Amino acid sequence: MLYNLIKKSSNIVVYTGAGMSTESGLPDFRSSKTGLWEKEDPSAVASTKALNKDVERFFRFYRKRVVDMKDCSPHKGHDILAKWEREGVIKGIITQNVDGFHSVAGSDNVMELHGTLQQVHCQSCGQVYGNEMYEVETFYCTCGGKLRPSVVLFGEGLPEDTFMKASDASEQADLFIVLGSSLTVTPANQFPILAKEQGAKLVIVNLEPTLFDDYADVVIHDRKIGEVLAELDHRLF
Ligand code: APR
Q1: Which residues of the chain have pLDDT under 50?
Q2: CATH: 3.40.440.10, 3.30.160.390, 3.40.50.1220, 3.40.50.10860. Which one for 1-26+74-114+157-237?
Q3: Whose Cα sits closest to atom 26 in ligand 1?
């Protein structure tokens, strides 16, 4: 079914969430038992409130994510999506992920809705640094300001230009494929709906049920993303 939809579509957009990176070894947020938010309260560690009111805990939380990311790398699924962009199968990827793995795997047209944990910037002067500053526990800029990851924190808006690009891509899509997202966080979760409302077919590949399964034309719950992409790639090429 998904193979046939891909074959007859001419403007395919892929939308990924944290479930895209679990097969690289990074935890997602809401998988029962292993999700990050099973252990931490997001508002206490990943919000503007945490950055301003409990910065030591904020620094600890994000430093651990930077260190964990260094031990992981894109998996076969990321490589396949990069190949599909090069071969013209997909137009691009809208991602909620901040690990940068789509770009590392070679994808070009990647819209990072929630920013990137590959870099940090000074809250005061805006100076940008690599995330290795957190690895070596350097949490302050030479100007004295706090260094924070260049991610969208709870309490912040999405980057305007990326939001517009993702909206355009979603509106033009004739096939919108969600990979590994519970689709619980707004406004990022609006893009699948926008695509569907503009006439796209909607496919959701996710191990657990999502908020928008009822809207989807195809739902795949019982298979991992890596396996689904490998099988499709084998049939397409
Ligand atoms: N294959 C398929 N699905 C998977 C896999 C896999 N290998 N691994 C995990 N999943 C599914 C899980 O069942 C889960 O429903 O991926 C989904 C990931 O959902 P979340 O953990 O909620 O992650 P995401 O949807 O990306 O969260 C959105 O929330 O906390 C914020 O900023 C954070 O960007 C994040 C946003």
Answers
A1: none
A2: 3.40.50.1220
A3: 17
Residues acting as catalytic residues: 114
What residue's CA is closest to ligand 1, atom 15? 182
Task: State the closest ligand 1 atom to the C-alpha of 151, by its place in the atom list counted from 1.
Answer: 32
Question: Any residues with CB less than 8 A from the CB of 214 and at least 6 apart, and which?
Answer: none
CA distances from 59 to 33, 43, 104 (A): 24, 14, 25
- For the segment 62-76, what is each residue's pLDDT rounded down to a tens digit? 999 999 999 999 999
Fold classified for 27-71+119-151: SIR2/SIRT2 'Small Domain' (3.30.1600)
Q: Which uninterrupted H or E stretch holds 231?
A: helix 225-236
